[in-house]
């Protein structure tokens, strides 16, 4: 896997990134160590985490994922220098008061969260530090429209950039990024950075998969013209695009008891558990099988080969899943398959937005 450069930075990373949000909940520490070892063995040198992980988010496991990664790094001298390590500061609490008491994301919140993440990760610097979701009211996590009357933002983007710039100067982070952002947000972060001589965002981490291609509704142009890279998350649609839910009728919101999606009540009500998302996934998975591909191969190859994507974030709960996802690298989709994918999207749009 040839490395890719993130934005206008010196970060050179593998085009597949290991997402770690399952570590500390579905994946215990011993298994997490094996997964990380295997990822490095197979050429993945880019790991992504967040202060709020593990998920499903709850007070008892907040920060657990970073702690596991920190222990893994300490047990492997020299490994930290081989990796690009990304983490995220959570946006407004969104029903998670254990992260912070306030309703916003102030400069002090960012400072405190970064220093706490550094301690848990047992590292002196985070290579890419991202705002997990905006403080602003934005259409995300299943929300379709922007409503001005719902705007309750308390912290300016300029204030957030100022503290991120200070953290860069202090050597605690190297570069900054965004997540779950909009075209306006990306433009404003870049504009203010250039105006005030502050760090420029190098990436945005947004959902991108067959059942959610909303990134292509204008954000792709913004990022391309501004030199901001996409880190695509949920490329398998929270498991919908693996085919394992195909036996369930589209109207069923339930899933196998041990399935990841069944553990997320909010997820089932928001994006991935919607009946139309399940129905859409079945169509894409059937298309894959018609062309001699597994559902995983087609879904991942779609992300791996799209010009919009710099690095695809894969999250797994076993070494076998990791190998399957990595083995999909190099799969090329024929023009016929790509045309059929676009036809399905034309008919159903983005049901898991």
Which labels suit this protein?
353 residues; alpha/beta; TIM Barrel; eight-stranded parallel β-barrel; two-stranded antiparallel ribbon; 11 helices; globular
Describe this structure in words.
The chain has eleven helices and ten strands. By secondary structure, it is α/β, with parallel strands linked by helices. The chain has one domain (4-239, 307-331): TIM Barrel. Strands 3-4-5-6-7-8-9-10 form an eight-stranded parallel β-barrel, surrounded by six helices. The chain has a two-stranded antiparallel ribbon with strand order 1-2. α5 (183-196) runs parallel beside α6. The radius of gyration is 19 Å and the shape is globular. The two termini are 29 Å apart. The mean pLDDT is 93.
The spatial strand order of the largest sheet comes to: 3-4-5-6-7-8-9-10
**Percent range for helical residues?**
25-40%
User: CATH first level: which class?
Assistant: Alpha Beta
Do you know the CATH architecture? Alpha-Beta Barrel
Q: Name the shape in a single word.
A: globular
Major sheet, described briefly? 8 strands, parallel, barrel
> What's the average pLDDT?
93
In terms of DSSP E residues, the strand content is 5-15%
Parts with pLDDT < 50 across at least 5 consecutive residues: none
Radius of gyration: 19 Å
Structural class: alpha/beta
Distance between the termini: 29 Å
Number of domains: 1
Order of helices and strands: EEEHEHEHEHEHEHEHHHEHH
CATH superfamily: NADP-dependent oxidoreductase domain
């Amino acid at each position: 896997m040839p490395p890719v450069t993130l934005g206008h930075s010196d970060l050179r990373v593998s085009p597949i990134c290991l997402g770690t949000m399952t570590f500390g909940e579905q994946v215990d520490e011993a298994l997490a160590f094996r997964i990380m070892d295997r990822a490095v063995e197979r050429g993945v040198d880019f790991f992504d985490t967040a202060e709020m992980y593990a998920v499903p988010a709850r007070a008892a496991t907040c920060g657990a994922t970073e702690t596991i990664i920190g222990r893994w790094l300490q047990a492997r001298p020299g490994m930290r220098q081989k990796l690009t390590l990304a983490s995220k500061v959570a946006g407004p609490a969104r029903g998670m008061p254990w992260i912070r008491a306030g309703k916003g994301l102030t400069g002090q919140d960012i400072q405190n969260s970064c220093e706490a993440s550094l301690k848990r990760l047992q590292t002196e610097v985070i290579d890419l530090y991202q705002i997990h979701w905006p403080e602003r009211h934005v259409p995300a996590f299943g929300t379709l429209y922007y409503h001005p009357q719902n705007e309750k933002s308390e912290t300016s983007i300029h204030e957030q950039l100022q503290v991120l710039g200070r953290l860069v100067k202090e050597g605690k982070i190297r570069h900054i990024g965004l997540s779950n952002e909009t075209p306006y947000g990306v433009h404003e972060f870049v504009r203010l950075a250039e105006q005030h001589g502050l760090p420029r965002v190098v990436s945005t981490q947004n959902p991108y998969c067959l059942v959610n291609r909303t990134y292509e509704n204008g954000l792709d142009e913004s990022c391309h013209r501004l030199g901001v890279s996409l880190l695509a998350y949920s490329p398998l649609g929270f498991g919908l695009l693996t085919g394992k839910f195909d036996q369930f009728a589209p109207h069923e919101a339930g899933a196998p008891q041990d399935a990841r999606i069944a553990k997320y009540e909010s997820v089932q009500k928001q994006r991935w558990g919607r009946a139309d998302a399940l129905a859409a996934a079945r169509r894409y998975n059937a298309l894959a099988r018609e062309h001699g591909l597994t559902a995983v191969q087609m879904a991942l190859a779609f992300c791996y080969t799209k010009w919009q994507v710099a690095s695809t974030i894969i999250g797994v709960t076993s070494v076998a899943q990791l190998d399957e996802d990595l083995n999909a690298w190099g799969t090329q989709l024929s023009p016929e398959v790509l045309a059929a994918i676009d036809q399905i999207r034309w008919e159903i749009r983005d049901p898991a937005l």
